[in-house]
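tool=predict chain=A
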Amino acid sequence: MRYLLVIVGLVALIGGLAAIKGSQIGGLIAMGKAMEKSGPPPEFVATAVAETQKWEGTISAVGNIAPVKGVAVSNDAPGVVTRIGFESGALVREGQVLVELDTSVERAQLSSTQARLELAKLTASRSRALVQSNAIAPAQLDNDEAQLKATTSDIEGMKAQIARKIIHAPFTGRLGIRNVNLGQYLNPGTAITVLEAIDQVYVDFPLPQQRLAEVKEGMPVRVTLDASNGSGTWEGTVKAIDPTVDPATRTLKLRATVPNKEEKLRPGMFANVTLVLPERASQVIVPGTAVIHASYGDSVFVVEDKKADSPGASTAPGGQPIKIARQQFVRVGDARGDFVSILDGVKSGDPLVVAGAFKLRNGAPIVVDNSVTAKPQLHPTPENH
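tool=predict ok
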């Protein structure tokens, strides 16, 4: 009888525990169904509407800046440097003397030849007078005239030798670093410095052969530098188009001339080049923050109304209506300021998520709050702090 009572007690205890656990599991299942019915909590986002604007057609490329005129200044004749007439980086005018080599020997020879020239002139003058009176033979006059011409030619040769040892600036421009010193002996062709005219520069840039039909000489270009090199935009025009397509890259080279009065564009720099096409095309544009970039493609989140029969709450705790974010893959075009053009996937008037899109997934519930959001601009001018 005692054992029977123990067994009955154990059965009653196990049954009570099972009832309690069953009640707890039932409560959790009911809570899960309620949460499934209410859906996940909505995310707060900011939105903007896709617009249509007419943008000028452009082609972007990366170019190299080259001087319109640039030479390595060197000496033509050997000699010792006796005078240097410039400083490194100086602005010089055409014809300005840069370097003089020792010409003492040539100048001494020139003085001697000039003395012989004076004698030749006197001799030729006397011979002309004497031949008139038949005092000398005409052959003597011919010999004296030839001697005068030869001496005159010798003087011109001496002057040319001296001129070869005086190096002038071939054009107006800015010099590079000086590579010679006083007293230094220079062999012919020694590099003295570099001279470049940079008040106007060339910008050479390539374009794919598919764009050949769209470009022609005289088209406007805009040149900008990387932010680390300086800011600003320079306007120029296409000066020449290379007639040959590079067989390795299938690109053709274009050359634009760009005024450079402030000398901020230096030869050897690379620059961003925008070739402006004559026509303006309609573009669907969205703020750049609306586009989510991923390895599998670019996408945006389109805001849609929540269907009445879809699960989950229809309003947020604050009373705002809950909407749905639908992920839409897009093809992105050019960028201008804070906007990018959408070539495919979005049409004008579609509301898009522009802030908070990184935390969304397809079909996620959202609440729109545009009370605090930055206004995108086509030509932004942010302050530099």
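The mean pLDDT is 86. The longest strand covers residues 51-74.
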